[in-house]
Amino acid sequence: MKQRRGAQGRVISYAELLRVPSYLPIFLANALSMWGDYVARVTIAAVVYDRTDSPLATATTLAISFVPTFLGRSLLGPFVDRFRYKHVLVLSHVARAVCVLVLLWLVTTAAPLVWIFASLFVLELIGGAASASNLVLITDLFEHDRPLYARAVALSAMSEQVNQALGLALGGGLVALVGPRVGLLIDLGTFLVAAVVILVVVQLRPVRGDRGKGVRGFIRDLGAAIGDLAGHTVLARLMALSAVATLGIAAPEALAIPIAGDNGWGGVLMATPIVGAVVGIIVIGRLDVHRQNASIVPLALAMPVPLLATALHPPLPVLGALFFVSGFLQAFMVPLQATFALATAPEMRGRIFSLAGSISVGAAGASYLGAGWIGQHTTPYLGVAICAAVCLGLLAALGMSWPHQHVSATVERAYAPSRPTRAA
User: Fold this and answer.
1) How far apart are CA 63 and CA 370, in angstroms?
2) What is the mean pLDDT of residues 132-156?
C-alpha cells in the first residue's frame, strides 16, 4: 500500500494529490501568479529604497502591499458568498493585470512615490476577494476527502513559500541586472495566464446558503461573519495565534533589504526564512493530521526565538541561518489553516475566509510598519529582535490559555469523513 494516511493515520502522497481532476492546472496557475506577484513586490521595494535610502520607506512599500488586502478581504468578503467564485477569480485577475500596466507606466516615467503606492493599494485591494475565492475553490474541490484536502493545504503552502522565495530572490537580481520593468512584465503575464486557466478549467458551482438583499443584507452578512468567528472558541483562538505569529514572521522580510544594504543580497536574505518554511512544511506533512495539530502551539512558541539573536548584529551568513530556522518552525501554519477551513460551515466560508485573511494581512502590515519604524530609529537588526520578543510574549500568553480539549474535538470532527469517499 502506498503512503496514504489521514484521520486514521494514513499519509497521502503528493503524486496522488496531483492526480485529482482539475487540481494540477489550478495549482500551477496559482503558483505562477504568486511567483510573479512577489517579483513585483521586491522590485518596487528596491526602487523605493534606491530613491529614498530609507528603511521606513522600504517597509512602508511592503506594508502598502498588505493593508489594502486587509480592506479588500474584509469589505469584499461577502461578495465571495454572493457570486460564483469562478467569476470573482477571473475578473480579479484581469483587473489586477490592468493595475500592473499602470504600475509599469508609473515606474518607467519615474512618477512620484505617492502614485506608485496608490497603484499598489488598488492592485492588492482587488486581490482580497480573489484570495478568499481561491480558498473556497480548493476546499470545494476536496469536499469528499478531507485528509486529501489537508495534504493540498500543505502543498499550497509549500508552493507559496517556494514561489515567494524565487520571487524575492530573483526580483532583487532583476532590478540589479535589467531594471524594474522586467519584474512588472512578468507579474502582468502571470495574472493573464491565471485568468485564462480559471476560465477554462474551473466549473461553475451554485452559490450556497441564503444571502441578505441590498446594502443592509450585505452589512448583515459581514456582521454575521464577525460574530461567528469571534464566538467560536477554536476558530477565534486559531485566528489569534495566526495573527500574533505574523509579527515574528513578517519582521525579517520587512528589514532584510536595509540589513543587507547595497550588496545586492537583500532579496536572498528575504528568501531565507521562506526556504526554511518549505523544509518545515515537508517535515510536518509526513505526520498524520492529529500529530500536526498537536504541534501547533509548541512550534509557534519556538518560531520567534532564533530571531532574538539578531540584536547581536551577527554576520549575514549567521543571520541567514537564524532566519532559516525561524522559517522552518513556521510550519505550524499548515495544520492551523487546514483545520480552520474545515471547521468553518460551507455556506460561510467565503465571508469567514475573507475576514480571517484580512486580520492576518492587517497584522502583517502592522508588523512591517512597526519593524520599519524601529529599524529607522534604532537599527534594522534591533527591529527584527524587538518584534520577535513582542511576538514571543504574546504567543506565550495565548499558549497558557489554549483550549486543548476543544481543539482536539474540533480536529476529530473536521477530519472525520462526512460522506463516503468516491473511488478514483
Assistant:
1) 10
2) 74
Q: Confirm whether 130 is domain-assigned.
A: yes
Distance CA 384, CA 250 (A): 9
pTM for this model (two decimals): 0.66
Domain membership of residue 272 as a residue range: 20-205+212-415
Nearest to 209 by CA among 142, 136, 158, 301: 136
Q: What is the pLDDT of residues 237-290, one digit of tens each?
A: 888 898 889 888 888 887 887 887 666 676 678 778 888 888 898 888 778 778
Residue 330 sits in a domain of what CATH number?
Answer: 1.20.1250.20
Measured CA to CA, the distance from residue 55 to residue 63 in angstroms comes to: 12
pLDDT tens digits along 207-225 = 554 554 545 655 666 676 6
Tell me which amino acid residue 181 is.
Answer: R
Q: In whole angstroms, what is the distance from residue 349 CA to residue 135 CA?
A: 9
DSSP code string of 70-115 = HHHHHHHHHHHHHS-HHHHHHHHHHHHHHHHHHHHHHHHTT--HHH
